[in-house]
Design brief:
By secondary structure, the protein is of the alpha/beta class. Helix content is 33%, strand content 20%. It has a domain of 100 residues. Helix 4 packs parallel to helix 6. The longest helix is centred in the N-terminal third of the chain and has 19 residues.
Length: 348
């Protein structure tokens, strides 16, 4: 069974809570025991969260798969920028050639070197970004390179407990907690019964990324929407995508490609805009080397995929980058700004 088909089978087992999910319950119980043991080491003082000179906001989720952490990170960065806060981002940089190394992203870096999502955050968010498996060491490297930063945002890393955090933003999509069980019997990385270890603040904001509250946790909602399209070369030059450019592609013969954890969301949004296309779902973090479509095709792609395609190597190809924006409700921004007053009492 391929990795993709295995993931689909597990997702179905968790959603339907079927026989496979029940058979995996002993492994889920083992996972719970390991988590409790890890927290116990922190409570006994055998392990400790590190200390950093600036506050940290961790954007994460309890459920595996694409719940919307990266769009949430970009939305938070926009709020921080409008509040005048100088923020940087740390990320693991999943899928890059050497995940053990720590790297502060520089102009000209490629997705294969730093990861597709971190590179997209650096380009879209226009903030300093560093990648590394060890989040604490990565944070220190970013602060050394940019000592003026007032706050760090960690894209994922909720279960990386050595990383201190003063606020957690938990992101949920329409799956909610699914069957409520820990991996592999369910999709949960951790559960609400597991308190954070010492050194990590219990303060958290819950954000639902698909417009509906899908758990019993009190929180805020947001909506994802297409911001528009722009040609690949123009996107790399920083041109903002426009909806009218996207709408001009109606009635054309198109391919829509998406290397996302849940690509159907992207396809559904394109369909809602009246576009006709052949859907080409790709593995999450797909390298796009070689191109999975013909050079003569007219193709719609996401920004996460655009960071892997240099326009100078694709002259003559008709590739359109479609931007997805995530807009939290105003009450979330108000709550986050209140937290910022606590985290940065002297102001930005």
């Amino acid at each position: 069974m391929s990795r993709g088909s295995l993931e689909e089978r597990l997702q179905r087992a968790w959603r339907d809570n079927d026989r496979l999910a029940h058979l995996l319950r002993p492994l889920g119980a083992l996972h719970a025991a390991i988590l409790k043991f890890r927290v116990g080491l922190y409570r006994l003082g055998l392990k400790r969260a590190a200390k950093l000179p600036v506050p940290v906001i961790v954007v994460g989720n309890w459920v595996v798969g694409g719940a919307g952490k990266t769009p949430t990170t970009l939305a938070i960065l926009d709020i921080l920028a409008r509040a005048g806060v100088r923020a940087g981002v740390i990320s693991r940089g999943y899928g890059r050639a050497n995940e053990e190394s720590i790297r502060v992203i520089q102009e000209g870096d490629r997705a294969a070197e730093v990861g597709d999502e971190p590179l997209m955050i650096a380009l879209r968010g226009r903030v300093p970004v560093a990648v590394g498996r060890d989040r604490v060491a990565t944070a220190k490297a970013l602060l050394a390179a940019h000592p003026d930063l007032q706050l760090l945002v960690s894209d994922d890393g909720l279960q990386h407990w050595r990383l201190p955090r003063q606020l957690s933003v938990l992101v949920f999509d329409e799956r909610g907690l699914s069957n409520g069980r820990l991996l592999p019997a369910g999709p949960l990385r951790q559960s609400r019964q597991l308190p954070p270890p010492p050194g990590s603040s219990a303060r958290q904001l819950v954000l639902y990324s698909t417009g509906l509250r899908s758990t019993g946790l009190a929180g805020y909602v947001g909506v994802r929407q297409l911001a528009g399209a722009t040609a690949l070369a123009d996107w790399w030059r920083g041109e903002a995508p426009r909806l009218e450019r996207l709408h001009a592609l109606r009635n054309k013969s198109l391919i829509a490609a998406a290397g996302l954890a849940r690509p159907q969301r992207f396809f559904d949004m394109l369909g809602d805009q009246g576009l006709s296309f052949r859907a080409l779902p790709l593995p999450d973090h797909a390298t796009l080397d070689p191109l999975p479509w013909a050079r003569t095709d007219e193709v719609l792609i996401t920004e996460k995929d655009a960071v892997k395609l240099r326009p100078e190597a694709l002259q003559g190809c008709r590739i359109w980058v479609v931007a997805l924006d995530f807009q939290p409700e105003p009450a979330f921004e108000e709550a986050l700004l209140l937290e910022l007053k606590r985290l940065l009492p002297d102001g930005p």
